[in-house]
Amino acid sequence: MNRNRMRLICSRCSQSLPFRYQNMKCTCGGTLLVDYDVEQIASMLTKEALVQRYPSMWRYYELLPVSKPDCIVSLGEGWTPLLRMYESEKKLPIRQLWVKREEQNPTGSFKSRGFSAAVSLLKEAGVTKAAVPSNGNAAGALAAYAARAGIAAYAFIPRDCPPLIVQECTDYGAHTFLVDGLIHDAGAIIDAGKDEQGWVNVGTLREPGRVEGKKTMGLELAEQLGWKLPDVIIYPTGGGSGIIGMWKAFRELQALGWIDGPLPRFVCVQEEGCQPVVDGLAARAQVSAVSAEGACKPNPTGMRVPNPPDLELVLSTVEQSGGTAIALPAEQIASAAASLGALGISASPEGAATWAGLLAGCDSGWLRPTDSVVLFNTSHALKYATLAGLTQPRTIRSYADFRSL
Amino acid sequence: MNRNRMRLICSRCSQSLPFRYQNMKCTCGGTLLVDYDVEQIASMLTKEALVQRYPSMWRYYELLPVSKPDCIVSLGEGWTPLLRMYESEKKLPIRQLWVKREEQNPTGSFKSRGFSAAVSLLKEAGVTKAAVPSNGNAAGALAAYAARAGIAAYAFIPRDCPPLIVQECTDYGAHTFLVDGLIHDAGAIIDAGKDEQGWVNVGTLREPGRVEGKKTMGLELAEQLGWKLPDVIIYPTGGGSGIIGMWKAFRELQALGWIDGPLPRFVCVQEEGCQPVVDGLAARAQVSAVSAEGACKPNPTGMRVPNPPDLELVLSTVEQSGGTAIALPAEQIASAAASLGALGISASPEGAATWAGLLAGCDSGWLRPTDSVVLFNTSHALKYATLAGLTQPRTIRSYADFRSL
Question: Where's the Tryptophan synthase beta chain-like PALP domain (chains A, B) (predicted)?
C-alpha cells in the first residue's frame, strides 16, 4: 500500500511529522504516535474483506506501520482466543465475561505482538542490533523475533525476574544480562551504551512498533465480538502501552466507521507497592493518594514499572475512557491465579491480577450488573514457576499404593 | 446436526457398530474408530462456508463426534499457526518447509485438541470422574478441560517426567500422582482401580474423543495450505494417535471430495532406546531390527511409549502413507532444540526431534528436493525446563559493568 500519507503525531502537543523510524519522544516531552490516513484505508478495506484473511495480527496490515510486506517478521502472533466464562457469569454480578488468552501467543505472552511489529520495523530500517529493558516477557519476545529476523538481541532484565523467562531469552540466542536494579535501571544501561554499542533501544514507547502491535489486541477484540466492544476492559498495567495501543485502536475503528457507541472503560490493575497509575489518577482527581509504596515490596512481574515512560498519557487515556485503576495485594493476586487455574486457565500473575480486579470491582459496585467485561491474561503461568514453589505429588507403585494414601 | 448415522468401525476387522460412548477396543483386539456419514456432511458443509467460521478446531464440528453443541468444552484450542521457514528452505535440499506450532494451544501442547473432544464427550455422557496415564502433556490437558467442565481429573504420571508439567496438573486442580514406572504402568493402576473408583480411562485409544480431536491437526493442515497437502509430515510418535488421527482426516477429506492427489508420507520420529515404531516397521519389512533398546535410557518425553496401545494400526498407517520411522540419539534432539531456538521457535524435545528427523532425512536422501515438509512442534520448550538446567546470565549494575565483561 501507499504509505506516503502515514505520519507521526504528538499525543501531547499535536505536532505532526512525516513518518520515519525514530525515537518516539517529541521535543515537547510527549509521545509520538503513528497517524494513519484513515480515509485512504476506509476506501481500501472493508470489514467483510477482513473475514477472508488469515487469523493473525497481520490481518490488520493497513493499520500497522510496516511498509514492505516482505519485511514482516512473524512467528504466528495474534488472533488469540477470547474465551467466554459462562459459569463465572452466573456467579458474579455482571452481564458477560471473557478472558482474552494472550498467553497463547508464540512467546507465551502478549509481548509477541509488539515485537512482531517492532522487529519488522527494525528489519525495514536495516537495523542489526537491538536492546530492551524488560521484566522478562518483552525480552523473550525481542529474543525470538530478532532470532527469526537475524538481528542481534540484547536483553537487560532485573535480576529477580522469573528464571524461566530469563532462560527463554538465552534459548532464543539473545545476549542476556541480569541487572541489579529495576526496569528503569536496565533502561539507563542501554541508553548509556547506545552510541558505543550501536544498538537501538526498543523499550516501551521508544519506537513506533510496539504500541502499534499491541493495538491489535483492541482491533481483535472488536472483530471477535462482532464489532461491538465490551463495557469494561480490565488490564494489568506496567508501562501502559497496551492501554495506549488499545485506545488508539478504538479511535481508529471509530474513524473508519466500523464501530459506534461508547468505548470501554479501562480498569488498570497493579500490585500494591508499585502503583503509579493508581496514585497518578488519585493525584489528578485531587483525592489523597493511596500508595502503599514502601509498605510492601512488589513482585517482579510485568506490572512492576515504577516510572512509566509516559505516565501522563496513560492517565489521560484511562480518564477519557471513564475508567479507573486499582492496586491489589500480592495475596489476592496469588489467590486469583489459583481461581483461574481451577477454571482451566493458566494465568500469569498479571492475568490473575485482572481476576482479582474483577472481584474487587464487583465488591465495590464500580462494575455494574449490566457490564460486559474482558480480562486480559497476558502471559502463561508456567513462565513464572520456580522449583522452590513446585508441589511434589505422592509417588505410587500400584493401585494398592493409591488406595492406601 | 443429526448424528443418527455416525457409527463405530473397527480398524482391523471392519465390524460396524452404532455409535455410543465406549471403550474403543473391538472384540477382535483392533481399535474402533468413529465413522461419519460423509455423504450427509458433504450435503451440509462446503469449504467456502468454513472460511466464515471462527478459527478453532470446532470449525470442523460436523467431523467431530460431539452431538450436543452445548456440551462442547473449549478453552481456545486449534487453528495454531503454520509457520513457513523460508530461511531454512534456502539451506536444505527440500522445496518447502513449515512448522505447525502446536505449543500455542491453551495447555501449551497439542494434547489440548484431543482433550477438548474427549472431555466434551465425557460431559455429554454425564461422566463425573476421569483418569489418564500420561507422560505429562495429556495429563495437563485433561486437568485443564476437566476443570472447565467441572469433572474430577486423576493424573498418573511417571515420576521422572518434567516437574513443570506435573505442576500444571496440580495448578488445574487435578488429583495428581507420580508413578514409579512407565506410562503403561500408570495405565495399569487406572485399570486396576476402574470399578472401585468409577473413573473413566481417557488414555490413548480408550475412548472416541482423543483421536478425533487430534484429527483436526490434519484438517487444519489441509485448510491452511489451501486444500493441498504437503508431501511429508514429520511427527514425534509415542502412542501414535496423532498419526492415526491425521490419516483419518485425510481419508475423510478425500471422501468429501475436498482434496485430491497423493497423501503425505509420515515420518515417525522417536528417541533411541524407545522405538517401537522403528522396530515394528523393520520387523514387518523383514529387515533386521535396529533397536538400541537397553543401550540407552530414553528421556521422559511424550515419545517414550514402549507399548503403544495399537502398534499394528500405527505401523500399517505409516506403511500405507509410504512413510518411514527413525530413532534419533538424545544429543541430536538436544542440538535440534537449540537450532529451533536460534530460529525463534520454542521447541519441546518432541518438536526438536522432528527437526533432527528432517536433517537425517535430508542426509539420507529419503527426503527429495521436490518435497514440501511439515514439522509438528507439539509442545512448548519451557514446560520441560528444570532449574538444574537453567543458564545463569551475568549480573551487572551499570554500563561500565557491561563493558568490563
Answer: 73-378
